[in-house]
C-alpha cells in the first residue's frame, strides 16, 4: 500500500460505476487522483469526496469519443506538471441493436472510446512510468471479451477482446520496467451501464442476484491482482467458471449456448 502514497492516478469514466470506485479505492491507498468523464457535476462531487481522504484531485471533463480528447487530457496535465503513475481505462458504454441499425458515426465513436482512447492514453502515460521505474495500467474489459459473443452489442465483445490482448502485450513489454499491466474482465455488475443502454428491465428479469457483482469488490480485487503481477483478472467464481467452460468446450457449442441465452438480457 505504501508504494501508492503520493502517486498520481488518471481514471477515465470516473463519473459513476467502476471508474468512480477505482478512484475511491486509489485515494484510500494515498493516491492523488485525476478524474475524467463527460459529466462535470458528477466529477466535482466525486472530487470533493476524495479530498476528504486527504488527497489532491484534478477534474478534466472530456468526451473520449472525440479523437482529440486523449491529447487534450494529457496537455492539461502537462500544464499542471503532472505525469500519471497509474492509468485506469474505465470509460465505456454499449450500443444496442444490430450492427447496421446504428450509423457508422455512432459505431465509429464507440470504437474511438472503447479502443483507440485506451490505447492512446496508455501510449501517452507509459514513457513517464518507464522513466520513474514504476507504474500501473489497468484496462476494464469484460467477460464478453473472453467468451463467444451474441447478437446485439456487435462491437462490444470485440472491443473488450482487444483490451485483453492489448494488455497482455503491454505486460510482456513493460514487466522489466517495473510497470504492472492488468485487464479486469467482470461479468454483470451493479452500475449504471444497463440503465444507460436500456437493458436494465430485461437484465433484472433474467439475472439472479448471485450472478451480479459489486463495483467495490471488482475494483478491490483488480488492484490486488495488479499488485500480484496478474495480467488477466476475472472477478467472481461464477464468471471464472463460465470462462473456464467456454475455453474447454468445442467452439461451436459455446457459440450455440451464447446465442440461446442472448434474448434473456440483450436489447436487440
From TrEMBL:
Q: Which PROSITE patterns match?
A: ADH_SHORT
Note the InterPro entries from the entry: KR_dom, NAD(P)-bd_dom_sf, Sc_DH/Rdtase_CS, SDR_fam
Which molecular-function annotations from GO does this UniProt entry contain? oxidoreductase activity
One Pfam family assigned to this protein is: adh_short
Domain of life from the UniProt record = Bacteria
| Record keywords | Oxidoreductase
Specify whether Endoplasmic reticulum is a keyword of the entry: no
Q: Name one GO cellular component term.
A: membrane
Q: Where is the Ketoreductase domain?
A: 7-189
Q: Which family does it belong to?
A: Belongs to the short-chain dehydrogenases/reductases (SDR) family.
What protein is this chain from? Answer: Dehydrogenase
Gene behind this protein? hetN
